Amino acid sequence: MTPSSTEPRERRETARPEPLPAASIAHLAIDEVGQLTGKETLGIVSVEPAEDGGWIVGVEVVEERRIPSSADMLGLYLVELDDDGELLACHRDRRYLRGSTDAKVH
What we know:
The protein contains 3 helices and 4 strands. Helix content is 25%, strand content 37%. It has a 4-stranded antiparallel sheet, covered by helices on one side. The longest helix has 16 residues. By secondary structure, the protein is of the alpha+beta class.
């Protein structure tokens, strides 16, 4: 006997599914940025919980291809997703040359 067959219908419909794991959220963020920008996504550079729930994911994107590729212009997009993986916000945080170092590093 499954628990759902013994619960009243309204209880089954309101039951909250488990939140998606960070890895699943990260893959959704890559897909969203690729679709929104139409640009090649390189990967995830950060995943962190948002203060009010959900996730903030940093996605690295090729903004402009150059020759040699070490001169490519990259962008860092910050994507906010809720616990279900729905897009809440997306914006480009910064642009930089491939291989450049972070100004915060001393």
